[in-house]
Amino acid sequence: MASEEKPKAFPGSIGTVRIFGVPVRLHFTFVLLLVFLVFIGVGQRQSGASTALYVLALFASVLLHELGHTLVARRYGIKTIEIVMFPIGGVSRPERAPKAREELWVALAGPMVNLILGVGLLAWSAGQQGFLALEQLREPTDANLAERIALGNLVLCLFNLLPAYPMDGGRILRSLLALRRTEEEATRIAAGAGQGLAILMGLAGLLWGNFMLMFVALFVYLGAAQEGSAARGRILSTGYTVRAAMITDFRTLQHGDTIRDAGNLLLATSQHDFPVMHGETVIGLLSRSRLVRAMLTDGPEGYVAGAMDREFVRLSPETPLTEVLPQVSAPGACALVMDSNDRLLGMVTSENVSEFLLLRQVSLAQAKQHIS
Question: For position 337, which CATH number holds?
Answer without folding.
Answer: 3.10.580.10
